[in-house]
Amino acid sequence: MRLLFVHDDREYLLAPGAEFGTDLGVIEVPEDVAPGDTVETHLGTEFVAREPRGPDLFDHFERTGAPMMPRDIGLVMGHTGVSRGDRVLDAGTGTGVLAAYLGRTGADVVSYERDPDFADVARENMALAGVAENVEVRTGDLTDDLDTFEREFDLLTLDTEDAPTAVGRAPDLLVSGGFVAVYSPFVEGTRDAHLAAREAGLSEVETFETIQRRMDFGERGSRPSTAGVGHTGYLLFGRN
Q: What range does the domain containing 14 cover?
């Protein structure tokens, strides 16, 4: 597995045995490198090896679009309690950040991506995250395969325009007490998913807008940053 090599604000994701040139010198990564080791460039600059975690993967995945932000992923994980051994059905893989986070909890994930090129990139990202064994990326549209699944999933996660269709089938897909989580950057799609959840008879249906503000601390005082409201999207949750 690749490790993250960090010096101040510089960081590079490199595999054991790799050689990588920077303006701080060439990094030659030993084959037996381990997290916590220090590696010097040929100019004497020290880089510390770290095991990459979720936020690091978010920064270093190859992107095929705008991935779900870590703060939204945190809400999904916190509200659904996803954990090791859970079965997750996911649609709208994209870059695969959510699928990777879910896979790193120990959950088994089946994720659908309609674009074949995006799906290939997502599979490479799953390998980079070390979750290729428990995250399966399928090329196709989940709504075409809804009749092929039994009621076996603990969590249904959706980041697609046709999410309301899958939400309507959630009672057939989820175990008793299982959750559905729908992400949408637009309120119209969220409203449609909300109506579908109500019509399907799901309980505990609630929707949140995720807004995050950074704090600025200075000599004059402390206050929230004035650099925008930090809206990313809407998250709908429901329970079978």
A: 3-51
Let me know whether 209 and 153 are in one domain: yes
**Using CA atoms, how far apart are residues 83 and 91, in angstroms rounded to an integer?**
19
- Is residue 21 domain-shared with residue 115, that is, in the same domain? no
- C-alpha closest to that of 54 among 102, 95, 110: 102
Residue ranges in the chain whose pLDDT is less than 70: 228-229
Same domain, 45 and 88: no
**The two three-digit tokens of residue 137, written as one number:** 């990326």
Stated as kind and residue range, the H or E segment containing 187 is helix 187-199
pLDDT of residue 229: 64
Total tally of structural domains belonging to the chain:
2
Sequence-separated contacts (24+) of 30-35 with Cβ below 8 Å: 33/3, 35/3
**Do residues 234 and 185 lie in contact, with contact meaning Cβ atoms separated by under 8 Å?**
yes
Q: Are strands 87-91 and 108-113 parallel, antiparallel or unpaired?
A: parallel
CA neighbor of 95 nearest in space, from 51, 129, 142, 146: 129
